[in-house]
Design a protein that fits this description.
single chain; mainly alpha; globular
Length: 288
Amino acid sequence: MSSVDSTLNAQGDKARQKADSGTGWYAVLARTGLVAKGLSFALVGALAIKLALGSGGSATSRQGALAQLAHHSFGKVALIALAIGFAAYALWRFVQAYAERDEGGDDGEAKKWGKRAGYVGRGLIYAGLTASTLRILSGSGAGQSQNSKAHKSTAMVLGWPGGRYLVGAAGLVVIGVGVWNLYRGLAKKFEDKWRMGRLSPGVKRWGTRAGVLGHAARFVVFGLIGVFMVKAAVDYKPKDAIGLDGALQKLAHASYGPWLLGLTAVGLVAYGIYCLVDAALRDVSANA
């Protein structure tokens, strides 16, 4: 083995050791990223609450909320901090994918690669969110809304051979993600990753309540996005597909819209609070 290979292997072992222990720079990446994630969801929820109350808010995606943040005097400082946080979250997930261990056997190998794919997917989402934030900071805007992106992407995929089935399958997967969020919230599965004793019982109790409500709100949002993706596939209408902003708009325009939107918006703020508690309590070691 060459000296270069030995050096690379040693560096890889050190990265895995840091990831396994959840300490040092690896923990900083994870906790910084979770804080930024929580603040971005809370911002979307706060704007939706204002809309439900008739106080001039909006039903928008996280990119749209960040664009609105840029209009405030403190906006640039906040956006720089969030961009750093989003980048930290993306790097955390990429390192987590690299450090994921094999659990043994064929099932363990499949599970390892499934987890790695999930970590990389989440990392890519936050890398994209980092890029969107930097575009807003540079003055080039947030780009298309999630609704517009959903229409464009769905139209492209529907034009492929078997595209209708791909869009329908993707919609079912998104619905599944929503159902998983509901199960994770009601069963309080997120507590499995918490290291107890780091905060007072009262903070943990309210963090748990925020987690249950927040995951339920994500179920509503993901469920709506998935249902309308399936509808776009069945009806062959790309404009039926929606993003986060579209899901909140659907709630706003439904019967009892302000109430439905308000409850979901409160849930998104609660999810943001949960993420902040998660940042403090979570065991961020690679295989936690």
